[in-house]
Amino acid sequence: IDFSQIATPSSGVEIPASSGGIQYALSEGLFQHHIDFMKDLRAKIEESDPNFPNLIVTSAYRTPEKQSSIMFDVIRRSVEEEFKRLYRRQGTPILDKFMIAYRAGNVASGTLVVNEQINAGKYFSSHLRSEALDLSTNHLTDAQVSALRTAIGSLGVSNQLLEPLSSCWSETLARLPNSDGLVTPGQGNCDREHIHLRIPSKYLKSIT
């Protein structure tokens, strides 16, 4: 399946109700390979902690429009530097072009930039290829975040990122204090902190 051509992300599976320690906090863009991975991840984390908090999925497949909107949000909620750090592989000219759309407040123009890259065989995010998941860490302690990252890695995930780095996490992957000097997960600019991971290829067989 060419996920860049899917006009209606809800053409995926129906979003399951929260159960078995997994919560899908999204309304669209979920496919069976996402669910299969999450079931394995839940089983893995429960090997070490049967009472581990819910795993909360906040993003799966994204349309170009959704990707543009999310990048607008990254810039608005963090800083331009965070946007350019996250998407630096696209190259400065493309990032500058997207920033023009952002400064004009035009998400549709930003979507055109995203589609321009897709047409060139380049993707701002693996979410656009339905190969990624974001898992919220708002409700997790530092120790639980570490345990979750270990479980994710044990399933063959070689690419997982703590985001947003500049405002929530330090270069050593420790939580940064808020403006009041306290380290409070899920507060202030970090109310959308999460782990971004790329799903291993073995789970993607159903979409090739």
Keywords:
alpha+beta, disordered N terminus, five-stranded mixed sheet, globular, 7 helices, 208 residues, 38% helix
Would you give an account of this structure?
It contains 7 helices and 5 strands. Helix 2 (64-77) packs across helix 3, helix 2 crosses helix 5 and helix 4 (92-103) packs antiparallel against helix 5. Helix content is 38%, strand content 11%. The protein starts with 21 loop residues before the first strand and ends in a 10-residue tail after the last strand. The chain is globular and about 50 Å long. Helix 1 (32-48) links the parallel strand 1 and strand 2. A 5-stranded mixed β-sheet has the order 1-2-3-5-4. Mean pLDDT is 85; it is low at 1-10. It has 208 residues and is of the alpha+beta class.
Please count the beta strands (DSSP E, at least 2 residues each).
5
N-C termini distance: 6 Å
The general outline is globular
Structural class: alpha+beta
Order of helices and strands: EHEHHHHEHEHE
Percentage of residues assigned to helices: 25-40%
Question: Biggest sheet, in brief?
Answer: 5 strands, mixed
**Rounded to an integer, what's the Rg over CA atoms?**
17 Å
Provide mean pLDDT, rounded.
Answer: 85
Please count the helical segments: 7
Binned strand content: 5-15%
* Multimeric state: single chain
Weakly predicted, low-confidence segments: 1-10
* Strand order, largest beta sheet: 1-2-3-5-4
